[in-house]
Amino acid sequence: MTPCGQFLVGLLFVLTSAGRGFAQGWPELPVKDAAVEIPAQSWPQRPGPRTVRVLVHYPDGSLESVTPQTGIILTLHNWGGTDCVGTADPRELARRLNVVAVCVNYLQSGKADSIAGPEPYDFGYLQALDALRALWFVRDGLRSQGKAFRDDRLFCTGGSGGGNVTLMANKLAPRTFACVVDLCGMKKLSDDIAFNLPGGSSLNARWSRDAGSKNYLSIDEQELRFVGHPGHLAAMKQLGATSKIVVVHGTDDATCPYADAVQMVDLMKQAGLDVEAKFVTKADLDGAVFTSTGHALGNRTQIVLNVAGKYLAPDGENACRRSGPSDFERRESLRYRTPNGEFVISYESGYPVARFQPAPPPIQ
Fold first, then answer.
1. Which of 77, 103, 98, 102 is nearest to 153 (CA)?
2. Above pLDDT 70, what percent of the chain?
3. What does the alpha-carbon distance between residue 290 and residue 19 come to, in Å, rounded to a whole number?
4. pTM for this one?
5. Domain count, the chain
6. Gap between the Cα atoms of 54 and 38, Å rounded
7. DSSP 3-state assignment of 304?
8. What is the CATH number of the domain that holds 231?
């Protein structure tokens, strides 16, 4: 059995303490497939309370269908999408893989905020924190309901913008997932995409180079959003990153540039992370699973199942299981250094809360 397929003992969780309760603003886990609203971290562009819609799908439509072998998977929509659009079908994943499948209306879901809005596109920071909160909510809810499940089977996938959020969620919680599957997601907030430069990608994240603008993109914010940042990958490796990272990307993708995918995969390999790339060529086109070498790729549900199904499966020699406690359990703070300080992701509350900590001024 491969290391990714080693089954760990003692990772089935049952009720050990009282649930969150409504006093803290967290809803109860629904007993059947349903949508709920959970509290989210404030967005500096629109300060104040914020909630995120989370859609929960059980293996057979109800909480009762969760078994001691059931895992949890996030399946995340594309840039401009909502709910479960542009990603693998949650009901199919729940049924085929014995998982609770969770879609998340993360920050700037929908065209009004993500494409037409005046604010810059978040590009995976608060969006990933939203997704991780949703994962924590379901995981904690199962424990509060006294449902045994496989906490070492935590997964994430998403298409396009959802692929970017998947990669960023793995970066902000490097010891949480057993496997993540990126489908043609953005790998970095390049100048081209950030500032809508001529040529290159058609994506426009609406950031500004003007330090006086509300939409100003600092070098620190930009570096955090570079999934292949060598220093950050080294930090993930040092922390003991657990996830197998599967990257599926079309060789003719100009929206989320193929060259960015090649660069990120190469940097991950150099850092010693467990990454596997499926770069889709014309030879792969079968009219059913893969239909394009461009951004669309094909049937994203079938792509996940065909390329990564053996890693997401509930059993088998290649089935992925996380080793060790998750970041949720560790209650520690992770730090990613940038030129002018560091981003701190705190799990003190179980779910993540992040902030930028400026470096102290030099001593005169």
1. 98
2. 93
3. 43
4. 0.93
5. 1
6. 7
7. helix
8. 3.40.50.1820
**Residue 355: inside a domain, yes or no?**
no
Q: In what order do the strands lie in the sheet with 71-76?
A: 34-40, 50-57, 99-105, 71-76, 154-159, 179-183, 244-250, 275-280
* CA pair distance 146, 215, nearest whole angstrom: 45
The two three-digit tokens of residue 111, written as one number: 């065209």
Q: Which helix (H) or strand (E) holds 262?
A: helix 258-270
Residue with tokens 């540039």: 257
Report how far Cα 100 is from the mean position of its chain's Cα atoms: 16
Res 17: pLDDT: 34
Residue pLDDT, tens place only, 225-278: 999 999 999 999 999 999 999 999 999 999 999 999 999 999 999 999 999 999
- For residue 360, tell me if it sits in a domain: no
What are the pLDDT digits (tens) for 118-151? 999 999 999 999 999 999 999 999 999 999 999 9
CB atoms closer than 10 angstroms to residue 164: 30
pLDDT at 235: 99
- Looking at per-residue confidence, does 7 or 32 come out higher? 32
Q: What are the backbone angles phi and psi of residue 57, rounded to the nearest 5°?
A: -125, 120
Q: Is 330 left (phi over 0), alpha (psi -120 to 50) or beta?
A: alpha
Asked, for residue 359, whether it belongs to a domain, the answer is: no
Residue 354 included in any domain: no
| pLDDT value at 336 more than 50 | yes
Domain that includes residue 147, residue range: 3-330
- Please say whether the beta carbons of 163 and 297 come within 8 A: no
- Please state whether 297 falls in left (phi above 0), alpha (psi between -120 and 50) or beta: left
**Beta strand ranges found along 153-290 (DSSP E):** 154-159, 179-183, 244-250, 275-280
Q: What is the pLDDT of residue 364?
A: 72
Q: Which uninterrupted H or E stretch holds 322? A: none
Q: For residue 364, give the DSSP letter.
A: -
Alpha helices in 104-176 (DSSP H): 111-114, 126-144, 161-172
